[in-house]
Amino acid sequence: MKPVYLTDKPSPFALNEALVAREQDTLLRRRTPTEGGGGARLRVAGREYLNFSANDYLGLGSHEAIKAAFKTGVDRYGAGAGASPLVTGYNRAHQQLEEEIAYWLGLEAVLLFNCGFSANQAVLKALLGKEHLLWQDRLNHASLQEMGSQLPCKMRRFAHNDMEALEGQLEPGRGLIVSEGVFSMDGDQGPWGELSRLAAQSHNWLMIDDAHGLGVLGPEGRGTLAAQGVDPAGVHIQMGTFGKALGVAGAFVGGSRALVDYLVNFARHYVYSTHMPAAQACAVSQSITLVRTADESRAHLQQLITRFRQGAGQLGWTLGASETPIQPLLVGESRAALALSERLRERGLWVGAIRPPTVPAGTARLRITLSAAHSEQDVDCLLDGLGMRAEGLRHV
Ligand SMILES: *Cc1c(COP(=O)(O)O)cnc(C)c1O
Predict the structure, then answer these.
(1) 102-119 pLDDT, tens per residue?
(2) Which family does the entry's similarity section mention (predicted)?
(3) What spacing in Å lies between the alpha carbon of 216 and ligand 1's midpoint?
């Protein structure tokens, strides 16, 4: 078959104009195919790099026990779910995983989704009608911002972690407040004690997206709420993902039995989508077993974070106010962030530059992520690569 080229035909969509404009602003994105590696390593075009870009915070993505559980699951249940969950795609392995998560996090009921993006969108879309209000942090994930702006409900965005601003916007009993456990580009945490106080006082519902806190923070890796000592009963909806610290893929939404039953009936992303493979649920179950007893990994990770922050500070770099494995190193201009990332790459260090529109204009950064799979020597290599800030900028 010959490929079909549409470029020289009249088109209702200005694809090339949009791409050229992005290129001119140094914002054009390109993908790089990787060749695996696992743990703290990454192979690209035959060369091995130290990986400081992944969200595999506990190094579980290539853990033998999880790979074995995935394989056994494939042997037992096949490669695919075969149907959406309300047809025949809901397997006992999914049911078991839901029960394990509910027990782990102290939730009444849990529902699995193929990914966090669709879980977030499903919840907002299923709950919020035009009579409702949605309040969300300005730095919330794209999946939340985007669905919020497309829904018929009114959306108010409050300044990042600004509880006074939120309190000023709240109206009693009108809808849902949503924020994140750990913010994905900044690594700082939402003030969950205060959020749950404001939600309770105003009789609104509260939802946490804990994609980056789950597995990393708190006793047994139960996440941001556990780490901050916040009663999960005051947070009506918890969303977490399996593709970050848990090292696999997929997501869940948890809360009351009524919430889950409602989503099973009204969440279109759930009802009309082929369920995640049962084998994947088996892998996630195994991962949770490991995560719950991974206190040593979490302690090692915390030591690496401290080591990196001290070292980068001594070199004169500005870091975000983050105590989590997400360590933004602020550079400013997109071009400078790209050049620094390129310089590190030449030294065998893979660190992604994050540019607008993912982050606000003028705050381009390196998003450095640490993992329990890194050693202290790995972190020292990164610090060597970052050199002195002044020297860094001369080379940029
Ligand atoms: C990664 C992420 C998601 C999306 O989860 P996926 O499973 O990757 O689709 C949602 N929210 C936040 C905060 C995230 O970082």
Answers:
(1) 999 999 999 999 999 999
(2) Belongs to the class-II pyridoxal-phosphate-dependent aminotransferase family. BioF subfamily.
(3) 15
